[in-house]
Amino acid sequence: MADERVHPHNSPSHHQHEDEEEEVSTPRPSPPSPEKPIAQPPQSPAATYVIQIPKDQIYRVPPPENADRFKRLSRPKPSRTCCACRFFCFTLLTLILLLGIAAGIFYLVVRPESPHYNINSISISPLNLSSSSPISPQFNISVTANNPNDHIGIYYEKDSSVQAFYNDVILCDGVLPQFYQPTNNVTEFNVDLKGSGVQLTSSLLNQLVADEKSETVPLKVKLRAPVKIKVGSVKTWTIKVKVNCDLTVDKLTSQSKIVSKDCGYAVDVW
Fold first, then answer.
1. Which of 23, 136, 166, 192 has the smallest number of Cβ neighbours within 10 A?
2. Does the model's pTM come out above 0.70?
3. What is the pLDDT of residues 136-157, one digit of tens each?
4. Residue 116: is it exposed, middle or buried by C-beta count within 10 angstroms (0-12/13-18/19+)?
């Protein structure tokens, strides 16, 4: 009888069985599904912290070394109108200063003096005061013009006028001659004044007759002379000289004499 033996073929060993059991008992984690996002760990809510810094470590904004620069840059910029106004004021003040300096130099060099005017005598044609008819007075006045300046000459231009008044009533008028008066010069000239058809009221006529009898006839002479000043070779613009003389004569004849007089003058520069 044949011997039948059974030989195990590739039978697992005891250790192999233990390993298989461990593999079966410990499941392996499956890879995360791409469809589900990975959960983030929860974060704690934001917190507020109070930090105390020592007083000696507190810094200013801006820093001290930039404080001046910050003030300068933070100032509002002036507008164009303000800049133009400042420029105009500066130019005007500069011009005034230059004119003042020029005037001071001119005064120191030239030493200008005002001319002097005087009425030396007056001659009056006889007037008919016995009737109330209009009168035609004729005066001849001798005038002296004195120019005391060392560096200034005077041109007497046209459009001058001389008028004689009695109680604000014009009796006659005339014009000055045109001439040039050099430096340090005294010029005497005669002026003819004529009036025509002057009508005096009865009261004014009676007053004039009474003044003549008392040898105190008040008259007023107004002289207006446009002149130009010459300094070296430079001639100025036209300046108007005004002379007002209050006269008192003894009678209204060619032999009349000036009892008293008071003359004043002024100048219109412009």
1. 23
2. no
3. 999 999 999 999 999 899 999 9
4. middle
